[in-house]
């Protein structure tokens, strides 16, 4: 090997070259399939209704680069409109200039953060060319979220005996508004817990973001009615941090159990009692065991002089707060059990804080300020990701525009061989021919050939 003077390409160079080559091949293959589908539609269309007008070139940015192809424009004699039958068949608006899959990835990057600008840079680094600006990604996310919010689900409402609700508020700063910030009130609804391997996940999780001007619980009640078959026997278990607006849930539902979120209680008690390890250990165990009487007795027995002086005023207020919420420190499973409901598999509440951290990380990290429309769209995008769904990038719905015919399959379009195969199949390597032969990889392959 010492006689070879040509340098071999690095792994990065090989990988980059192969990826760019695959992009070119994908673009060519995608264009061929789309034009073949368009030709199929031309022959199978209702000739009496759709009059062929023109054939126009369009380009779409995809995950593998820009795809250029031609599609036919038709005049719909019935509706008096001009349509592209290919767009109808693919449930895609060709004017978007962006593939639905690439749009979903851009929105996914944006919802993960840390910023729209970073999302644009990550897309560019992945694809090798600038696809969307950060402003365009923001507009796409807001548009898709608002479109999704107008879609009324036709799914059958689920019948449930117990619904679990985690409620919290997230404060975000606003830009160019009279008010400096706003609290985004939201709820996470699920039907219980289920084992998934070594982990436990929430069953049938849904999110609600309050965006109307009315009361939170009125809007949330409408949300529940749309998704669940509820009556006066349905139990609602609500977990919250003790805010007044959360506590109002008890006056809105026939059978409602309101519990105080133990994460927030433990955090505050540790702040006050952290320097008293024995007392802290006692209240922590009482809180974990839902022993409200032991917890309050221990808290009330702490001499005020043992609390740090700068915390004493807050301590007095917090002890009074715990007294008011004594009945909200109970184990909801005891109440349900007394009502004849099987509580097997039910777990302590408290998943909201982890969910809120995900949203806070995206909306509050870096000191960002938002518009009301922008922050609500971002929160809804994160909620969709948390539910395991994606915001659709499809702009139009499929419509039946053809005469009844057997369904076309993409693989059928690839059966006819237009030209002889090139490359490894007939014994040639493309990198040894054309402009690639002078590249580092081409020179290295020539050296190996001898």
UniProtKB/TrEMBL annotation:
InterPro entries: UPF0236 (IPR009620). Pfam families: UPF0236 (PF06782). Belongs to the UPF0236 family. This is ISLre2 family transposase. It comes from Brevibacillus composti. The lineage of its organism: Bacteria, Bacillati, Bacillota, Bacilli, Bacillales.
